[in-house]
Amino acid sequence: MSRRVDPALTKRALSALKRAADKAKLSEEGLTEWEAEFLGSVEERLTKFGSAFADPDKGQLSAPLSLRQGLKVRQISKKGEAEGEKKPRHGFKAKDKPQSAAKPKPDKPRKPLARKTGLTSKGFRPNKSD
Questions:
Q1: How many CB atoms lie under 10 A from the CB of residue 46?
Q2: Which of 44, 53, 75, 116 could form a disulfide with 66 if both were Cys (CB 3.0 to 4.6 A apart)?
Q3: Backbone angles phi, psi at 123, to 5 degrees
Q4: Is there a contact between 70 and 39 (Cβ–Cβ < 8 Å)?
Q5: Alpha-carbon gap, residue 36 to 85, rounded angstroms
Q6: Residue 17: C-alpha distances to residues 70, 104, 113 (Å)
Q7: Count of alpha carbons within 13 Å of 124, Cβ hemisphere only?
Q8: pLDDT tens across 111-125, in order?
């Protein structure tokens, strides 16, 4: 059974490999021998077969890289990012909304539960115990 991988996905994976190698070469650490060999072998398999793995348990059959190979490429690419280039992490706070925690909201009178649920129209009347 031969796998069919979209040539556009293969081309995209090849460009991701080249970008990762370029970024890592520009870093202070550079590429290690293992990383250079890994990128070279994956690039060779992508150009020859269109995919860099054959075992269907290691990733999607339509993907050019296995899950672990994609992870390693992202790690190599991240290694090459300078401290200034890293994206700052922000919380989940909305920045465009003003902070309104200082003003407490006035209490609104609550409607009885029976009216909220619509049970009054079906004959349910809450007990009034005074």
A1: 21
A2: 53
A3: 100, 0
A4: no
A5: 23
A6: 9, 54, 61
A7: 11
A8: 655 555 555 555 566
